[in-house]
Amino acid sequence: MATRHKSGQNAKHINLALQGGGSHGAFTWGVLERLMGDRRLHIAGLSGTSAGAMNAVVMADGFIKDRREGAIASIRAFWERISETGFFNSRTQAFWKGYGSTVNLDSTPLYGMFDMITRMFSPYELNPMDYNPLREIVEEMIDFEEMRKHTELKLFVTATNVRTGKPRVFTTHEMTAEVLMASACLPLVFKAVEIEGEHYWDGGYMGNPSIYPLVHECESKDVIIIQINPLRRDDVPTTARDILNRLNELSFNTSVVREMRGFATISQLIESGQLNNHHYAQVNFHMIEAQDSLADFNASSKFNTDIAFLEDLHERGWNAADRWLAENYEMLGVRSTLDVMDVFT
Known about the structure:
The protein has 345 residues and is an alpha/beta fold. The protein is 43% helix and 16% strand. It is built from twelve helices and nine strands. It has helices spanning 25-36, 51-85, 109-120, 123-126, 133-141, 144-149, 177-183, 212-216, 240-251, 254-272, 307-328, 340-344, and strands at residues 2-4, 10-18, 41-49, 154-161, 167-171, 193-195, 198-202, 222-227, 284-289. Strands 1, 2, 3, 4, 5, 6, 7, 8 and 9 form a nine-stranded mixed beta sheet that branches. A hairpin with a 5-residue loop joins β1 (2-4) and β2. α1 packs across α11. It is globular, with a radius of gyration of 20 Å.
C-alpha cells in the first residue's frame, strides 16, 4: 500500500514491531528517527513492548502534535529525560565507572549491590510507595487524551497478566500512562501495575513484541521487526554471569520466536498452494537487528542510562536503518527480506 507525499513520490506503508530491552531501546530510537525522516515511508502501525512501547507511543504523540518533525523531536526529548532520571547515569558515574567496562555494569559495586538487593527483597518491601521516575516523564510528555481520539494511529502495547500468564494487547483507544507502566514493569524492581482489576508485569515475557495485531488489524502487509535482543550467540556461555545474560536474552525472545514460527508455517503453506483460503494473505517480513551492534553489551547494560551510551546506541540504530533502507527499500511491498524459516525455525 502507498500514499502520496509532498515530493510526489509514493510513500510505502509499513508496520513496525519494536522489542523491549531497557536502555537498549535507544538503538530503536535511532532506527525510528531514520525511518520517520524518510518521506518515502509511512508508518501505519506500531506494536511495542516495554522500551519498544515507550518508543512507539512517544513517537506517535509527537507525530500528532507536529507530524514528522514532532515525532523526531519527541523521541529525542524522551531519551534525554531518561538519561537525566536513570539511576546509572552521568551523575552517578563516579560510583560505577572505573571498574572495567563503562557500558556493562555487572563488575561495578553499585550494580552488584542493586542486583543482590532486588533478588533478596521485593519491590513491595523496598519501594512501598511504588516510586517510578519513568511514570512522571510519560505523564508530562504524552497527551493520552488526545492520542485516544486518533484511532487511525494503530498502536499496540503488550503487557503480561500476572495471574493468568496471558499477554494483553492494549490498543490506541485504551492508551494510558498505566498501560505503558504495565508494559515496562520489571517484577523485581516495581510493583505489578493494576488495570481494571488485573495486575500486569513487563510484556516481554509473553509478547516481545506482539506481531499478530500488525498482521490482522493493519492494512499494510510489510512488517519490520526491530530486534534488539540477540537471537544468536556464537559461543556457549560458561560463567555464571554469561549464563544469566543468555537466559535473559532467550526469555525475552521466546514469544517472538514462537509467534514467528507460526507465521513461517502459514507462509510455507500459502507458497506451496496447500492453503488458499481468502482469510490468509502473504505478509512481507523484514528485520533491522542489533545482533552485531550490541553483541558486546550484556543484560546489566540495559540499566545504563548514561547519555554518552544512549547517544552511541542511537547512532548505531540510525546507521543500521540507513544500511537496511539502502539494501532493501525496493523490496517493500514486493517480498520479504527476512528468511523467516531460517531465522525462527
